[in-house]
Amino acid sequence: MGDKITLNIEAREVHGKKVAKLRQDGMIPGVVYGAGIEPVSVQATEGEVVRVVKAAGRHTPVHLTGSKRRIAMIKEIDLDPAKNTIRHISFHAVRADEPVTTEVNIKLVGEGESEAEKAGLIVLQALDRIEIKALPMELPEALEVSIVELKEEGDRVTVADIVLPKGVEFVERNDGRAEDDDEEKPSIMDLVVASVYEPSALQAANDAAGGDAEEADADAVEAEHGEEATESKDEKKAE
User: Fold this and answer.
1) Using one digit for the tens of pLDDT, what is the confidence trace for 75-85?
2) Chain-wide mean pLDDT for the chain?
3) Distance, CA of 234 to CA of 215 (rounded, Å)
4) What does the pLDDT read at residue 1?
């Protein structure tokens, strides 16, 4: 996990339109909330907030120090669309001894080293994020899966090939199915992370997808012209 990420926060008394002056003074307004605690308005220096956002993202715990000492996860960042600066930040406080659920990136290891790629085949990643559950201090920044053993078209790596760090588990979802549903629920372990494709087959699939899109556009244009012709006839009848 590396060194823990800390952010010094102060209690915030300024609210509403007055926070504009706060931002002008180089401070970012925020809020800390969580189960069993009252939401607390806070503020922190802009430079420190930017540093923490880059380092922690939304899946690494942040140790809040200063007026309120808590472990929290970044839940929401409000950006100024014109300036691309942070306008507000929200933290969700968590307990160090209670597991949290979050999404992390999946990184492919050994790109360019597999027999498949050396033979001119293409490895495409189909799943780049996955939901996991762990104690806040055991959450990994990302999960890795090796593609070195991929050899021929159709070979693949699945979630089952990912080696989880100790204390981390995948989150299974039932997709709204009832418990007594006879249909067998697919396991998250069977999800494909990356597959090997023949370049020509991949190009053909892309061309086919493009052709389908063009055909759909042509049908839409034809339908639109047909409607215009019908409207024209109706107008003449009305005259």
Assistant:
1) 999 999 999 99
2) 85
3) 28
4) 47
Residue 138's nearest CA partner among 110, 168, 163 is 168
Phi-psi category of residue 129: left, alpha or beta, with phi > 0 → left and psi -120 to 50 → alpha: beta
Q: Half-sphere exposure of residue 173, counting CA atoms within 13 Å on the CB side?
A: 7
Rounded CA-CA distance 23/203 in Å is 50
114-130 pLDDT, tens digit each: 999 999 999 999 999 99
Bridging pattern class, strands 192-197 and 156-158: antiparallel
Q: Where does 11-68 have alpha helices with state H?
A: 19-24, 46-56
Hey, which bits of 58-111 come out as E strands? 62-66, 70-79, 86-94, 100-109
CA 213 to chain centre: 27
Please say whether the beta carbons of 106 and 100 come within 8 A.
no
